[in-house]
Amino acid sequence: MSHLSSLSNSSRRDFLIRSAASCMAGSLIAGLSRTALASVHPALSARETALGFLSLLGKDQTAAARIPYVDARRPQWHFIPMETRKGLPLREMNPAQREAAFGMMASMLSEDGFRRAVDIMAYEAILLELEGPAQAKRRDYQKFYFAVYGNPDPKELWGVSVEGHHLSINLSFDGDRVVDSTPQFFGVNPATLRRDFKTPDPLSADGKLPFAKGKRLLLPEEGASYELLQSLEPSQRSLAIFSEDCPEDIQWPGQPQPVPATQVGLPSSEMNDGQKQKLSAIIDAYFSTMPAAVAKERWQLVKRDGTEKIYFGWAGGTAPGEQHFIRLHGPSFIAELCNFQTDPEGTRANHIHSVWRDLTGDFHLSIPS
Fold this sequence. Notes:
- This protein is α+β, with helices and mostly antiparallel strands.
- A hairpin with a 6-residue loop joins β3 (145-150) and β4.
- The mean pLDDT is 95.
- The chain is globular.
- The chain has helices at 9-21, 34-38, 42-55, 59-65, 95-108, 111-131, 219-231, 234-240, 273-287, 292-305, and strands spanning 66-67, 88-89, 145-150, 157-164, 167-174, 178-180, 184-188, 197-200, 208-211, 241-243, 266-267, 311-316, 324-329, 333-339, 352-358.
- It has two domains: 2-211, no CATH class; 219-364, no CATH class.
- Strands 1, 2, 3, 4, 5, 6, 7, 10, 11, 12, 13, 14 and 15 form a 13-stranded mixed beta sheet that branches.
- The chain has ten helices and 15 strands.
């Protein structure tokens, strides 16, 4: 995949999607121009890239990567470092297989989301450099796992996941329709880089990725949340800040389903028009990692349920560098960002977890009543 080093981020994503789809016999999208490809629904591109990816695997690889849709492993997820996970890891793929795997991942994410996911993978090399060679097995930028659930078919239920440390992307499909895109998890450590780094490029065997001092992943949703908090009047702020103590992490980490919980914070119904726009900007930041069609469908659900029913909550400190926790909670979703942990060099509040979950049931599964 060394030729990818010379391409722009958007060209990389488009090339990988077309390349993976071309491995599928009779592909509808492999030869499309960039403009035409942009109009393809992500369910179709995900189906073709998933089939292309599977077509390149050997027998043992297929056994690891292809999992029945109703298998108990499908709703198992987590973002912590683990010895092994469901699916086939990048480390066990040849270059053509990795290219197809990344094409499948690209079809599940927007350009911004794809870049974020690749950077999170590369950050494992940063953690290895900071923590030392004894952590080589734990901090491995190729220890990310790709899985296809069921049969990617226009008439069947099926799904795709990409997961590793600080990354969990899960899409569920009913034929060529996206029926769930959660849990959606991104994490980063260090959140703000204290010096320059150069890591291996996960997309290119001989490429390198430069990361400059001060770079901050996950900035959009966190920055938009700070903007809303700072716009609040004292009476609104006292409602929004529901606790002076910052939780140590997001709720329900690794649990297959979120648990219905009481809304806390400031309701949108008590915000002015400018503040409501800032609230929408936070939601847009979460949706920006998803393909445009998925983001549009998510917004339709949010508006159907009533944007005035969304609560904005904050816990912990409010000044830069202080531990903080942010929660958006609507009738059918909950989004959280937690910046509590220290980085490997001991910098407080420099390790972020960010998640979007479906309160009607992640993985297209109903929450038990």
